[in-house]
Amino acid sequence: xxxxxxxxxxxxxxxxxxxxxxxxxxxxxxxxxxxxxxxxxxxxxxxxxxxxxxxxxxxxxxxxxxxxxxxxxxxxxxxxxxxxxxxxxxxxxxxxxxxxxxxxxxxxxxxxxxxxxxxxxxxxxxxxxxxxxxxxxxxxxxxxxxxxxxxxxxxxxxxxxxxxxxxxxxxxxxxxxxxxxxxxxxxxxxxxxxxxxxxxxxxxxxxxxxxxxxxxxxxxxxxxxxxxxxxxxxxxxxxxxxxxxxxxx
Length: 249
Description:
Function: Involved in beta-(1-->2)glucan export. Transmembrane domains (TMD) form a pore in the inner membrane and the ATP-binding domain (NBD) is responsible for energy generation.
CATH topology of the domain at 1-73 and 202-249: Rossmann fold
Order of helices and strands: EEEHEEHEHHHEHEHEEHH
Keywords: ATP-binding, Nucleotide-binding, Transport
Organism: Tardiphaga robiniae
CATH architecture of the domain at 1-73 and 202-249: 3-Layer(aba) Sandwich
CATH superfamily of the domain at 1-73 and 202-249: P-loop containing nucleotide triphosphate hydrolases
Number of helices: 9
Pfam families: ABC_tran, BCA_ABC_TP_C
GO molecular function: ATP binding; ATP hydrolysis activity
């Protein structure tokens, strides 16, 4: 079976500054893969390269053996890859239902028209209702997204990310800023919603990483210095050295 995501010799430079350096990375289909590293390691840049928000200076990025490097984000999304962002990205004045419905409409190729009641489209209505239930926000259906708690907004964003039925999901620090209890609920939600999908996640909370990931890759100064199972990464001396004594387990 071909990998869900594969990076071959990927590099990204800005002027004379090299941010991503000769990255080779493979994420198997159905795998939950975490990308960790110190601040400034290049994790968000790598996400931007994979999802089409930046173009690599060198190298290739493949989605199920098809080259996607250089394609715009919407084309990559249509091929089955969707991502969330480090900063919560929802329509604050629209309700939870309307946010999800927008994502479903986009994914199914429908467009708003003033003469058409989009709630009369059964596939859109049913898909939106299912996601609303999946992210446990049924009771908040008609609440403007801007009035949700931070944790609820992150749950909504995850719902938007999966709305199109993408089977490769990229989540950028989905539990950042959450309390311990909120983090536990978020991890349970992510685990449930990514069942049967491929997940690549950037996360600073090591308890989340080691509790969720099947495999972990460590990015330091734009280079992958180690990839392996949580147990292998936990005992890797290069990883411990890179974190300068920081806890990695």
